[in-house]
Amino acid sequence: MAQSTRRRISPALSDNPGNISYNPQRDEALWQRKWDDEGIFRAGPPDPARKKYYVLEMFPYPSGGIHMGHVRNYAMGDAVARFKRAQGFNVLHPMGWDAFGMPAENAAIEKKTHPAKWTYANIDNMRSQLQKMGLSLEWERELATCDPSYYRHEQEMFLEFLEKGLVYHKKSMVNWDPVDQTVLANEQVIDGCGWRSGAPVEKRALKQWFFRITQMAEDLLVAIDDLDQWPDKVRRMQRNWIGRSEGVRMRWNLEGGENVDVFTTRADTIFGATFLALSPEHPLSAKLAESDEALGGFIEECRRGGMSEEEIERKEKAGFKTKLSAHHPFREGVRLPVYVANFVLMGYGEGAIFGCPAHDQRDLDFARKYSLDVIPVVAPADANVETFEIKEEAYLGEGVMCNSGFLDGMSIENAKKEIAKRLEAIRQGEKVVRFRLRDWGVSRQRYWGCPIPMIHCDDCGAVPVPREQLPVLLPDDISFDAPGNPLERHPAWKHVACPSCSKPAVRETDTFDTFVDSSWYFARFCGAPDDSPTDRAGVDYWMPVDQYIGGVEHAILHLLYSRFFTRAMRQCGHINIDEPFANLFTQGMVCHETYKTPDGSWAAPNEITWREGKAFLRDAPETQVSIGPAEKMSKSKRNTVDPGDIIQKYGADTARWFMLSDSPPERDVQWTEAGIQGAFKFLKRFHRLVAENIDKLAPAGSKQPKKFSETAVKLRRETHACIKSVSDDLKGLRFNRAVARIHELANHISSFLSEDEDTQEGGGWALREAFEAMVRLSAPVVPHLCESCWQILGHESLLAGESWLEADASLLEQSETTIVVQVNGRRRGELRVPRGAQQESVTEQARQIDAVMHALGDGKLERTVFVPDRLVNLVVRGG
To answer: What pTM was computed for the model?
Structure first.
């Protein structure tokens, strides 16, 4: 056997050389200090000759403490950052805080403290928690959006956008809480009342600042096609939100000389129109309500119920018939009734529709309720148009025109063209393109946000704050004793001289929507000069972000606003790209069972004790609790697990390993005590496997033998197959598969160790190669454990500074095989796996194939038929 090397003890263990057990509480803090001392995660300067990689997780709101969703998110980003750094990339991996927002104001009111004090205390606590995770973050670049050194540049860019015509000020209808005296988002209106005060919400017209995002709507839409490294789901959501529609804007003449513009994408159905409907917010609705008290009451009722798209969809469709009627442009002598209807949005199209009940389900429901005519004008090609009729469901399919005069017999598309041509000829319409996307209203009536740098003068209007006076700072001496925005009640801050005429004026007291703060932070991380929002050399080198990671709940607004902001910054010379994120990954949620006591209150997991598979309250052992389904961890249902408790008990590496091993990263993961204990058990085995077999390895750095036994060659093949697989899996963010490969390699090593040592020529060298590969491949996921094992293996360097392994192509030949995957004997797919892959690993990978998941359904897996290197057949019952 090869000569054994002298045992090297990790510095963490040097006080007790005989103790080489796995002790994360002892080791992890040591390695974290060592990494910090060495500055090993500090990005190098911009160097065009050096390949770069910018990995970024969506920065958190400093709510007080990290949760398991943070652990999963940042463990993923950290694995990518460490992997890319080992591959030789110049890696940028920064951290910051999305620190403005309403929760801080609520805390100020409830806890009698200042929002800044509450926010910065939370930042300090969360920073400490994240540092205990051992993340390879460059803390020197840390930023907080509530810091004047950050938001002064946000104010500067707002003024630049204003000069570029990307900003304007206008009145807009808002949800107003009369008790809290603030504007509410649509999502904060619950059953017509304010989410916090419970007061009936009012509609008010307030002057608001807007970003002209619609000016870029076409570009934002078209460019989605090039974002091919984004999830299809997110791209689809973005397209739908922008909502490009080609149609016709047509003018309907009303009795009495009025007219109403209507936008429609189904001009072909005009002969089926039997009513017009106006939005309750339409100017004509308001005009009619001035002389019709009942209509005014209907409009108020609509407003109380909420006018967001989601709320309107949930409502029963209702209308108020006005005294007006509309002339049909092509049916001579036909007049249509005009309603004000609660399902018509003012924010889309023209705020008015023509209703064609036969071919729109919403219109059909409305028509049936108010006994309006239903005229089918499109019939299936094989239908008898004389007898075709609409019953309970509108006809939405393809077909030919009927009951439509000069359109009869045409296809839908040809009918659309013909109607557009005729409307243009009589000057009652034209073809137009409309977008669902609305301009971005950025005004918020609250204190804890970035002040909007404008001054209002009676003579000069809205005047920008001079650049030399930036930043406009938030005053510290504010009071939340009264409802509303404290800035409105701060005369010393509010009242200033007009920069143009020097007459008395007032500051803008609204602050920015916090989405503004998060729409450019990624560029500030690339360099933070005092005199400019960005460092041009930094952004030119680092941007775009190579890998952006975050929750799918941000798939629309945050990403869309960031894309707009980047384009606006380019117009102002602060960046040279349009798209900020090259690759996007949206991770699944962390879920946990829910527990409910007999009185209906929720119980937390740490309040539960188990007996014979049943759950009881720990402090009331006779009180059994009901076990609910696994749901997203939330404070409201108290099914959260404190990461600090997990790290203290098991170590950060165990939490990281479990989070990345349990399920595919894009899917939800279910947190279980058994799962975390299983992860801890494997890491203890990992450490023990290295520590207890060091004497069987060839010396570190020893020369490769010329000959290897058959079993040693097999181990080497398994080792290099693992190197290739893990490398590919980390590149593709398939963390759970990478973890499964490492489990396999550990099993192969254990199997090799059980062989007769004397028959294993070159075995010590092959074994060292396998051990070092296992440690180095695991380092992106469990870096502390692997640093300790690296030292045990005889190395004095930091593993975090070592290069990534490359698989030996000559050892990969015939090291992989194709396995056929069946469900109940029917082929559902295939897998490429290393030869000798074990049943457990193959089965787990097989169950992740979409076709297999579909075939399994809800069925119960009764047994698995496994033919090594050839086939796996999952036998299920039911489903």
So the answer is: 0.85
